[in-house]
Backbone:
């Protein structure tokens, strides 16, 4: 790894330090600052007052936070499970030699960088209740039109649908790459031992693919937890409080009610959850970056 | 796999593929055709149908939106901030990625430094956003492109570091060693040898940073009010004031959606590795 011919022992720090300093200044320092804020009543115009754990104590009595934590958890678990499951199904089908595989792959990769905010915005036309395309198709099939954006449950479903639309391609692409990286010899041997494709899938493919599935699941989980854009653009937390996801109430606490201390405390609770998830995957990530 | 699949299974696969195709393509199709409709056609149910067949497409909406001064201003801001932050990310990120790939850091092992960057990338942005807002307010940078560049670079930089590290690891070190023997400095070997050799991957990394910066919403929403308005913030304020003007919604939506979608096409072969931080090779 290291070169024999390094002249200056410290040149390596010159390479690394700009990035480290940048992250210390613009991420680590703000994180500590947020921690400080979470123990204070922050006023932008005057001095802060130390309030101890009051902000945190308030979180546990706040009905809106409880509601938001519940619906965010349901939304994250539902959408991530669907994304991974659909992504895996598509990847398994596309791993077979089917005609036009390249075109499907290209098509399925298109939504990968789509701005969630723009997609939520476009959702206003797709989920439009009187004459939007979805309801037109439903009524043409003889079904009832769905109150997508005016009914709490359907508003929640609409947000989930957009989330699945945006992130399934990522799962699909990564899992397909994972499948294509599996050694062919193993399958040749497996075909002698197991008769059905289902057996091969269960005994060979799934265990071999497990590390990739784990990575996909981790990355989806941590980015699903930050969900904000689609909700902000499509339902703004409504109808009622049906889609008030966690980042939205945190944002509102700070930027709408100017309660920065409370906002910071809310953010820290989310940060704590993400850290727990990361710790769970820590050993796996250490292996990856070995 | 599925070599000896039955007819029933094969039919099922085709049904799934067709469904997935319609599901994926429909929002693009719908956004584009709606943006090409004029005001009379937009609410007619048969306008779900094909351009030229069921209605005459028009570029009126696109021209109208692109002529709006606020839209031009936002486009300029989005493009400038995304490009400048990408340049920062690629330079600072490739330096650090190179360091992690080529040198050994004793006190903290390289892999732990890499995980440190990784954890900074995946933490919820809302935790950083609030103090970041106050920092920018203190520095007098609210509503400036500088603040946008600082925030975009901050969330893209860890990605650039990790992905460049994985690229340099795959580059054989012999060329750089030869350059060092020829009297190049370490920086010379990096800029003249390692960087050019990894140019294609560097471009892909830059495109992913660009797309992420173009799409960024939360920080821009906090930091921007008028002067530094970006496309995502501009469109987020639109639906309430303009009601159900679908042609406008679709045009603005597609304006934000299409550039990154095109970038996705360009970096297709690189996407998997890029988006898994090098954990899965594409």
Residues:
């Amino acid at each position: 790894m290291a070169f024999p011919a390094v002249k200056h022992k410290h040149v390596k720090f010159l390479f690394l330090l700009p990035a480290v300093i940048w992250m210390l200044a613009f991420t680590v320092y703000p994180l500590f600052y947020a921690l400080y804020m979470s123990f204070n009543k922050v006023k932008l115009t005057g001095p802060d007052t130390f309030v101890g754990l009051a902000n945190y104590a308030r979180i546990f009595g706040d009905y809106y936070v409880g509601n938001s934590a519940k619906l965010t958890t349901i939304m994250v678990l539902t959408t991530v499970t669907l994304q991974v499951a659909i992504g895996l199904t598509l990847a398994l089908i596309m791993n077979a030699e089917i005609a036009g595989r390249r075109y499907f792959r290209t098509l399925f990769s298109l939504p990968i960088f789509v701005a969630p905010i723009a997609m939520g915005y476009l959702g206003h036309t797709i989920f439009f209740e009187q004459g939007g395309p979805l309801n037109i198709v439903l009524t043409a099939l003889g079904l009832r039109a769905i109150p997508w954006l005016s009914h709490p449950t359907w508003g929640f479903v609409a947000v989930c649908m957009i989330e699945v639309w945006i992130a399934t391609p990522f799962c699909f692409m990564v899992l397909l790459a994972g499948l294509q990286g599996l050694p062919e010899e193993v399958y040749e041997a497996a075909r002698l031992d197991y008769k059905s494709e289902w057996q091969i899938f269960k005994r060979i493919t799934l265990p071999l693919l497990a590390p990739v599935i784990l990575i996909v699941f981790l990355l989806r989980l941590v980015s699903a937890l930050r969900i904000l854009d689609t909700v902000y653009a499509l339902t703004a937390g409504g109808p009622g409080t049906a889609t008030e996801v966690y980042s939205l109430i945190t944002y509102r606490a700070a930027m709408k009610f100017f309660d920065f201390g409370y906002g910071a405390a809310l953010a820290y609770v989310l940060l704590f959850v993400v850290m727990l998830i990361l710790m769970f995957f820590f050993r796996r990530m250490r292996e990856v970056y070995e | 796999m599925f070599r000896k699949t039955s007819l029933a299974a094969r039919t099922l696969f085709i049904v799934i593929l067709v469904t997935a195709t319609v599901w994926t393509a429909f929002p693009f199709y719908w956004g584009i055709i709606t943006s090409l409709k004029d005001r009379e056609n937009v609410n007619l149910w048969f306008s779900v149908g094909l351009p030229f067949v069921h209605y005459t497409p028009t570029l009126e909406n696109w021209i109208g939106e692109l002529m709006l001064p606020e839209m031009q201003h936002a486009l300029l801001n989005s493009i400038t901030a995304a490009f400048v932050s990408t340049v920062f990310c690629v330079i600072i990120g490739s330096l650090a990625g190179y360091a992690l790939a080529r040198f050994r850091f004793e006190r903290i092992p390289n892999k732990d430094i890499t995980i440190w960057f990784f954890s900074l990338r995946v933490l919820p942005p809302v935790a950083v956003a609030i103090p970041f807002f106050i920092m920018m307010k203190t520095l007098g940078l609210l509503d400036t492109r500088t603040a946008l560049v600082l925030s975009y670079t901050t969330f893209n930089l860890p990605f650039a570091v990790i992905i460049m590290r994985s690229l340099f690891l795959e580059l054989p070190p012999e060329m750089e060693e030869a350059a060092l023997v020829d009297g190049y400095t370490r920086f010379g070997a990096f800029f003249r040898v390692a960087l050019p050799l990894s140019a294609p991957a560097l471009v892909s990394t830059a495109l992913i940073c660009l797309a992420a910066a173009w799409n960024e919403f939360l920080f821009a929403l906090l930091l921007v009010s008028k002067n530094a308005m970006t496309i995502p913030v501009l469109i987020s304020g639109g639906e309430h004031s303009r009601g159900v003007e679908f042609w406008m919604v679709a045009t603005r939506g597609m304006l934000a959606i299409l550039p990154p979608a095109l970038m996705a096409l360009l970096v297709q072969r690189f996407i998997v590795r890029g988006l898994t931080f090098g954990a899965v090779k594409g």
